[in-house]
Amino acid sequence: MLRRRKNKTPPLPPLCPLTECMKLLGGAWTANLVWRLSGEPRRFSELRSDIPRISAKVLSARLCALEKNGVLTRHVVASSPPSVEYALTEMGRELIPVIEAIVQVGMKLQHRVEVRPRSVPGSAPRPRARATHRT
Amino acid sequence: MLRRRKNKTPPLPPLCPLTECMKLLGGAWTANLVWRLSGEPRRFSELRSDIPRISAKVLSARLCALEKNGVLTRHVVASSPPSVEYALTEMGRELIPVIEAIVQVGMKLQHRVEVRPRSVPGSAPRPRARATHRT
DNA sequence: GGGAGTGGTAACCGGAGGGAAACCACAATG
DNA sequence: CATTGTGGTTTCCCTCCGGTTACCACTCCC
């Protein structure tokens, strides 16, 4: 039966902090958005041109959600055409290390893409355990 | 018109590294999975019991995708009931700082949940710019 | 013989996510 | 007058994600 230390599950708190944080960053463009905001505060249309492929609907939805979660604040500037500035809150700024870590890995990834050592000739092509594999 | 320095977009490389990395971590349970694997290698059924709410289908899909992306390796152990061990590759291990940063923020988040200073009485209740706001 | 444990796959299916486009109200601008 | 730019909302629509369930093929153990 090959038991091998059955329940050696190290940490894993009951309410997963990872899941909690990923709820903030979930959804399309969210991480990009926080990244853009990590510098100076930006306005709606600036963000739209920063991330050209995001739609107004999704941008609006993300901004609402992020504000609701306390990640950013919206500040209305009463100018001739009233504009709105979005800025990270203190809590939002705590996400910056996460974003930067992701960007770091992303950049390493882009280097790997050039040299992709897939399917070394000497190794087995891909041993399946004993799965069904009908016909 | 209030021009304010039009295109001061700082970095944002053409092929976004953030998006590239998020493609690896996208999808339900993926980050959790990498987290579990960040310690010792684990088997399919171990992962299933580690993350009780993940379904076999999604677990299988994630493992396939992560293997395809070079994040982990599968190793078939030819034992009596053949078992499969999943382990992070070197590239997969580079994701660990990301996961840990996420977990760090997640834990801070859980502390904040207890004391949630939403809607400070002194500030405006929520000024909308001039949006439609029909009736 | 029957059940459990191994590691999956196949089919079904509902709901959410997200893209596209139209629309809004108003001021400034051409 | 028409257009542009401001910041969104709303509707339509379609895809794909992920949950559920069933099933497989095999071996070991009671």
Automatic annotation (TrEMBL), chains A, B:
UniProt entry keywords in alphabetical sequence: DNA-binding, Transcription, Transcription regulation
Claim: Transcription is one of the keywords in the record: yes
InterPro entries associated with the record: HTH_HxlR (IPR002577), WH-like_DNA-bd_sf (IPR036388), WH_DNA-bd_sf (IPR036390)
Residue ranges of domain HTH hxlR-type in the record: 16-114
Cleaved signal peptide residues: none
Pfam families: HxlR
Location of region: Disordered: 116-135
Entry keyword Kinase: no
Name this polypeptide is given: Transcriptional regulator
